[in-house]
């Protein structure tokens, strides 16, 4: 292990020396390559787990995110060539509602399939470490969806992102880094509203986003039956998974998200296995509906969610739209150790007292699978859009420079930031809803929290006669801008 580390250090030094000659002794590039946070080793316990599961340190990874469960999964390829679950991380904070991101400022964390290449990794994020999800992808763009700088990062603070603790993102970042060391060009990120099980599909059967969710469930099923990263293409404003050229075709099909689908087929062994799973799931879903499975309530006034393990550590903590939010469940977790440090200040999900009243936004998918309803995009007028607070705009950076030279493009424009619209004065609200504004809760580790002030009455306790007060149409940026993203590959070009 020591010899291997020494060899890698020597090779990295050689690459750095060559890079300095090409870049004119750019000290910023050297500091990026030596960034302590981005170069933390994979923890020994995780290394042991890889050994137990017959995985190589530098084998490919795949990431899955689930909003309702507030969990992030890291899958890793084992020596048999299949992906196996390495570790599940509870998500400290995600924002928005269940459903895809539609436009800049809707505070939605994205859903769908995205590709993360080295240039999307940001070692200088002020949210400790981060990587760009790649939103919007070709499918999102074909539908005219907008948004930028949607990240997975640390600091447990979200404005349209998936936020972990600093310790968690350090581990996830190191796993991505090692997969790039091993030659993986990009790892796949799959983001879902919930685990695509018959129970959840039955509960959310009336949600207007269901056509979109059924479409991405196809990709979920492809991965479930093959344990291989599904190949993702887009055409006719829809996702296509594991497509190959049709029999007799002389070249691979060319896909365009906005154009007509080319001739293609799905390998029979995959298509039949997926079809069987879909039939089983559909039958089970129908059975659950016939038995009266309750329909999940639409909670558009709550901004996102938090895993119960984190909510249990915060005075008046709430899981929001995530599962396990009842007081009994939180109390049972209060003595369990949180997986990482919760920041001194954290904004747990709470009912939004300033729900934006505006024209409904329909989350359409395609002409053949359009949304069955509308979803109102809400924004919390008391929150300001948070930038990714990084201060490295001055140079292109060591990682991004090499990514550009070898043709690996980033998905984020570091010079682009979206300023929030000026906040208009909100009209007076009923006294009950105005009782107390949402506040930031401070967590003091290893000490008894101070007696919290009496919480504000929830919006639903207002009388039926009281009409909801109109609110401003202020729209906030739903993302966390970062500096120019960077590429790992520069450090290792000498060994390729």
TrEMBL record:
Active site per database record: 153, 161
Chain intervals with Polar residues compositional bias: 471-490
Keywords linked to the UniProt accession: Cell shape, Cell wall biogenesis/degradation, Peptidoglycan synthesis, Signal, Transferase
Region Disordered: start-end pairs: 357-395, 411-496
Family to which this protein belongs: Belongs to the YkuD family.
PANTHER family, A to Z: L,D-TRANSPEPTIDASE YAFK-RELATED, LD-TRANSPEPTIDASE
Biased composition (Basic and acidic residues): 385-395
Pathway as given in its UniProt record: Cell wall biogenesis; peptidoglycan biosynthesis
UniProt cross-references to InterPro entries, sorted A to Z: LD_TPept_cat_dom, Transpep_catalytic_dom
Top-level taxon of the source organism: Bacteria
Protein name: Murein L,D-transpeptidase YafK
Family annotation (Pfam families): YkuD
The keyword Cell wall biogenesis/degradation appears for this protein: yes
L,D-TPase catalytic domain ranges (all copies): 61-192
Taxonomic lineage: Bacteria, Pseudomonadati, Pseudomonadota, Alphaproteobacteria, Hyphomicrobiales
CDD domains: YkuD_like
Position of the signal peptide: 1-23
Biased composition (Low complexity): 361-384, 411-430, 452-470
């Amino acid at each position: 292990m020591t010899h291997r580390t020494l060899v890698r250090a020597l090779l990295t030094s050689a690459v750095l020396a060559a890079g300095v000659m090409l870049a004119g002794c750019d000290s910023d590039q050297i500091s990026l390559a030596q960034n302590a946070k981005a170069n933390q080793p994979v923890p020994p316990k995780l290394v042991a787990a890889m050994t137990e599961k017959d995985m190589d340190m530098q084998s490919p990874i795949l990431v899955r995110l689930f909003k309702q469960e507030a969990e992030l999964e890291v899958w890793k390829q084992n020596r048999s060539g299949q992906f196996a679950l390495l570790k599940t991380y509870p998500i400290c904070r995600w924002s928005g509602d269940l459903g895809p991101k539609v436009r800049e400022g809707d505070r939605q964390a994205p859903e769908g399939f995205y590709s993360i290449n080295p240039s999307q990794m940001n070692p200088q994020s002020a949210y400790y470490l981060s990587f760009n999800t790649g939103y919007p992808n070709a499918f999102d763009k074909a539908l005219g969806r907008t948004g930028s700088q949607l990240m997975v990062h640390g600091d447990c603070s979200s404005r349209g992102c998936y936020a972990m603790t600093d310790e968690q993102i350090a581990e996830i970042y190191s796993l991505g880094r090692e997969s790039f060391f091993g030659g993986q060009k990009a790892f796949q990120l799959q983001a879902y509203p919930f685990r695509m099980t018959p129970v959840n599909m039955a509960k959310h059967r009336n949600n207007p986003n269901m056509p979109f969710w059924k479409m991405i469930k196809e990709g979920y099923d492809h991965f479930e039956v093959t344990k291989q990263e599904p190949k993702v293409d887009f055409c006719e404003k829809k996702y296509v998974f594991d497509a190959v050229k049709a029999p007799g075709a002389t070249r691979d099909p060319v896909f365009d998200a906005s154009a007509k689908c080319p001739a293609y087929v799905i390998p029979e062994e995959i298509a039949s296995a997926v079809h069987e799973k879909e039939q089983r799931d559909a039958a089970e879903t129908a059975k659950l509906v016939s038995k009266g499975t309750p329909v999940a309530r639409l909670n558009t006034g709550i901004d996102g969610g938090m895993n119960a393990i984190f909510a249990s550590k915060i005075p008046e903590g709430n899981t929001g739209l995530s599962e396990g939010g009842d007081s009994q469940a939180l109390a049972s977790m209060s003595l369990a150790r949180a997986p990482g440090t919760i920041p001194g200040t954290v904004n747990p999900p709470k009912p939004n007292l300033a729900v934006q009243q505006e024209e409904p936004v329909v989350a359409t998918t395609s002409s053949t699978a359009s949304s069955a309803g509308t979803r109102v995009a809400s924004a919390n007028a008391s929150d300001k859009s948070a930038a990714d607070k990084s201060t490295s705009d001055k140079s292109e950076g060591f990682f991004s420079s090499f990514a550009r030279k070898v043709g690996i493009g980033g998905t984020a424009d570091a010079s682009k930031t979206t300023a929030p619209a000026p906040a208009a004065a909100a009209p007076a609200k009923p006294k009950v809803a105005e009782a107390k504004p949402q506040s930031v809760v401070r967590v003091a580790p290893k000490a008894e929290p101070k007696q919290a002030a009496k919480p504000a009455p929830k919006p639903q306790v207002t009388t039926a006669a009281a009409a909801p007060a109109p609110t401003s149409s202020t729209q906030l940026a739903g993302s966390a801008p970062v500096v120019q993203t960077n590429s790992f590959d520069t450090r290792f070009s000498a060994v390729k």
